[in-house]
Amino acid sequence: MRSRAMRELDRTLRTIAPKDVGVALIGESGTGKEVLARRVHDLSLRRAGPFVPINCAAVPEALFESELFGHEKGAFTGATERLHGKIEAANGGTLFLDEIGEMPLSMQAKLLRFLENRKFMRVGGTVKISVDARLIVATLRPLDQEVRAGRFRADLYYRIQGITLSVPPLRERSADLSLLVEQFAQELAARHGVKPARMTRAAAEMLRSHDWPGNVRELRNVMELLAVLRDDRKVRVQDLPAAVRAAARGEDARTAESETLEISLTDPLERSVERIYDTALRLERGNRSRVAHRLGVSIRTVQRHFATRTRAR
Ligand SMILES: Nc1ncnc2c1ncn2[C@@H]1O[C@H](COP(=O)(O)OP(=O)(O)O)[C@@H](O)[C@H]1O
Ligand SMILES: [Mg+2]
Fold it and tell me: How far apart (Å, rounded) are the C-alpha atoms in residues 185 and 136?
């Protein structure tokens, strides 16, 4: 990755991966937390062992215990076979608990018990099984916040904290965007047997102005659509999915709207002048010399205007 944030993150990952410490990844959905967890595993001394992911948000509460710890045959109605749980499967490798903040409180207690002595019993079982696995967890929201809200056990939080790393959203990593576009274009073209997508300047610009709420996952999906649906021409703005275009359109509309200002002739002139200055100041994000430039007056005029208003209040 090109962005400074991701390069620093990678440097940290390389340092900690070979040390057997727990890792907590915090970041929005689709930012690449699972990709990074796998990278830690692949750079660790456990790389020959299994990497076992569980998405805690996707497992219904009733099935959680079996999923994690497994069960013995006949442990409950429907348990017709012995099942090995994910914890057991991760022995010698890495257990990745994605969206751990979504784990039911009852399961949090059981997970904590396992982490304290690294032993567990299958549901309905009578023997303790020892497991040696590195734990990596991921969450959308900082867990200390979840602890304060009463949704996450404080004792488990301290146990799993390990080294905490934040993964920034794609909209804050514009340097990575073009690299990922190129990478996905190549990869998906190969997969679908087409030529790599090339963008018109306007389409590339629109990808840059989108704010990517679904992060890298959303970008990958867009690139996949383009690989599947497009003919051999360059990708134009109208070839992009509506969600990408709509967001950009909304932005344009908002700017245009705030640039037109209705002035009423019944308002005192002073009031209208104030509104012009306020709007310009907002559009220029508080930069007075750009306000001066936009309104075609000198910077001193702008400064005098705001100074007079402050004194008048
Ligand atoms: N640095 C990256 N390079 C290539 N693909 C990535 C990268 N980061 C994320 N992805 C892709 O984006 C999607 C979401 O990544 P994932 O790790 O599951 O995100 P998260 O766990 O944060 O929701 C996956 O398809 C993944 O392959
Ligand atoms: Mg994920």
Answer: 30
